[in-house]
Amino acid sequence: MDPRLAREIVDCARDIFDKKTTNKLYGNVRKVRPEMITNDRIDLDNDRMTVEAFSAENDVNVTIDRKRELKKAVNRYETRAASKADNLRDKNIYFSTAYERGKSIEERWIRGESLAGNCAEQSDMAAFLAIKWDNTVRDLTYIAELDDPADHVFCVILRRRDPPSWRNVAEMIQGCVDSQAFVLDPWMNFSCYAASYNSMASAKMGKWLSEGKRINWGGKTQNAPGWYQPGGDYLECFLHARLDFKKAV
Q1: Cα distance between residue 40 and residue 37, in whole Å
Q2: Hey, how many other C-beta atoms are within 10 angstroms of the C-beta on 48?
Q3: How many CB atoms lie within 10 A of CB 199?
Q4: Domain of life here (predicted)?
Q5: CA nearest to 233, candidates 217, 210, 213
Q6: 228: closest CA among 54, 17, 21?
Q7: pLDDT tens for residues 182-230?
Q8: What 3 state SS string does 26-83 have?
Q9: Phi/psi-derived region of residue 222, left when phi > 0, alpha when psi is between -120 and 50, beta in every other case
Q10: Burial letters for 19-41: b for 16+ Cβ neighbours within 10 Å, e otherwise?
Q11: Among candidate residues 199, 190, 188, the one with its CA nearest the CA of residue 239
């Protein structure tokens, strides 16, 4: 696939969703732009309180009572914001193939509906657009899903008809089989050859970590939902969870 086309697909698969999903939060309020705040997302004051909570985690100058108050604010943010996004996401279809799901999303967008999507919907959209714009990849396009306890989905376009061979993201490195396959990851906002996916995904999480961003995740046990740093356990599970593949059509 032409890298320029891949980049365009990623951009379109992101831009079609006009509402922000709530599984990533900035730890730096200066990065929370006014246009990111909509009627379907929590207001800026609550964003600021959540950011303050992140900053207070290891600050010895913040009182215990204030930390407890801020933790409650984070929990309120998570519950309210997730509910609003889910109300929109509930309109998305979760049956059939990725291609059909992506087609349905495009049809709703053409009708002028408001759309919210996470990595799964964005990857469905990427698969649909890849096939729509280049039908030669129809039988080469897959949706890759990380098994529990990881939680992520991306799109893969192979150069041969056999299913992808990687068992996990950690194996997607230079010299791997299918190294020239193309990965479309709208949620992470990049596209690359499969041989670079491990390093690029790790670098992206390192960037998010340095910016203070947090990710909504269930934890290693899947029984401890909350806002996690995009490193440590989250990155370890991301790299080593089993990869499951489904054809896009």
Answers
A1: 8
A2: 13
A3: 13
A4: Bacteria
A5: 217
A6: 54
A7: 999 999 999 999 999 999 999 999 999 998 888 989 999 888 888 899 9
A8: CCCHHHCCHHHCCCCCCCHHHHHHHHHHHHHCCCCCCCHHHHHHHHHHHHHHHHHHHH
A9: left
A10: bbbbbebbbebeebeeeebeebb
A11: 199
Q: Which two tokens stand for residue 153?
A: 């989905």
Q: Which residues pair with 227 in a beta bridge?
A: 216
**Measured distance CA(202)–CA(158) in Å, rounded:** 22
User: Coil, strand or helix: which one is 153?
Assistant: strand
Reading the block at residue 184, the tokens are: 């479309």
Question: In which order are the strands placed within the sheet that holds 214-217?
Answer: 24-25, 214-217, 226-228
Angle at 38 between CA 36 and CA 42, to 5 degrees: 90
- Return the closest-CA partner of residue 248 out of 28, 118, 101, 76: 101
Residues 6 or more apart whose Cβ sits within 8 Å of residue 5: 133, 134
- Return all residues near 4 (Cβ < 8 A) that are at least 6 apart: none
* Residue matched to tokens 């992470």: 188
Whole-angstrom distance, CA of residue 182 vs CA of residue 248:
14
- Tens of pLDDT along 147-175? 999 989 999 999 988 889 899 999 999 88
